[in-house]
Amino acid sequence: MIQLHDVDLKLLRVFATIVRCGGFSAAQAALNAGQSTISEQMTHLETRLGVKLCQRGRSGFRLTEQGVAIHEATQRLLSAVENFCMDADVLKQHISGKLNLGIIDTTITDPDSPLPRTTQRFVSRGHDVHLNVYVGTPAELEERVLDGRLHLAIGHFPIHVPGLLHSPLYQEALGLYCGRRHPLYGSQAESDELLEEIGASRIVVRGYMQQYDLEHLGVSKAAATVDNIEALAILLISGAYLGFLPMHFAAQWIKTGEMHQLAPTSMRLMSPFDVITRRGTAPPPILQAFLEDLAACSRKTTST
Questions:
Q1: What's the rounded Cα separation, in Å, for the pair 122 and 2?
Q2: 68 CB contacts (<8 Å, ≥6 apart)?
Q3: Are 257 and 109 in a shared domain?
Q4: How many domains does the chain divide into?
Q5: Is the pTM of this model over 0.85?
């Protein structure tokens, strides 16, 4: 039995091209080779197979009986190889397994978040994936990515922790808010005249962005600290505190009159959202596929 090697497949492709073109001379352009090289390759193939494949000379090019049979077998073989390559590509693109994703809270109302579009794009590809979603504080998300419990996490990560790779996604707009029962409710004052009144108020800050919040308010300490946005909103609605809140999240209470935005021109912040993954290891296919879709949807959000 003949054992086929890579060189045999190459020679069979040359043979199939010669037959398709109708001769050695006509095949030179398709094969990008001279007639002597093509003739040498055919002689090598005939030696490998042990049969005469064609007649060539002044009478023209003609397949032998064995050449016709070998050509038919070659067509079947090359078709099978092509089908195998296509099947392998499909299998390579088909992702299966579990993807563990971490996010911070209250991003559901953010129109700039690429996560909903990314999830739809990722799932629509037909991947056989079970998605686990964990909502936590930035510190919890960092810890879980570092120890491998999460493949990736999306949120505010102001301090770059060693061992994590940070990739910017988008910016979240925040405003300064107070509740309906707060003394500053309805105030139209801007930063300069407002700073003194802010200094006399109870300030609630995000624990993971504490210095960032305090510096922008011009105060040295907070009266309350929270580790998630929902808790911050509760304190603001109470009327006892003021603090920064994502504008998309606060919109529902602005509409009902439960909150008021203070100094909307001068007290507006842009807070970065990053995606974090563990540094130093090649991402598994399931993570790589999700990151590619996330990058594509993030670019689309930025462009619009």
A1: 46
A2: none
A3: no
A4: 3
A5: no
- The domain in which residue 181 lies consists of 172-270
For residue 232, tell me if it sits in a domain.
yes
Question: Residue 203 gets which letter from DSSP?
Answer: B
First CA to last CA across the chain, in angstroms? 63
Q: Which residue has the higher pLDDT, 22 or 91?
A: 22
What are the distances in angstroms from CA 28 to CA 20, 33, 36, 58?
A: 12, 5, 10, 18
Task: Please state whether beta strands 152-155 and 96-103 pair in parallel, antiparallel, or not at all (unpaired).
Answer: parallel
Q: What are phi and psi of 21, to 5 degrees?
A: -85, -20
CATH number of the domain at 295, please.
3.40.190.10
Note the pLDDT tens digit of each residue in 82-140: 767 655 554 556 677 889 999 999 988 999 999 999 999 988 877 778 899 999 999 99
| Together in a domain, 159 and 121 | yes
CA dist 192 and 100 (Å) reads 46
- Token readout for 67 is 């050449």
Amino acid at the residue 280: G
| Tally of residues, the chain | 304
Contact present, 99 and 277 (Cβ < 8 Å): no
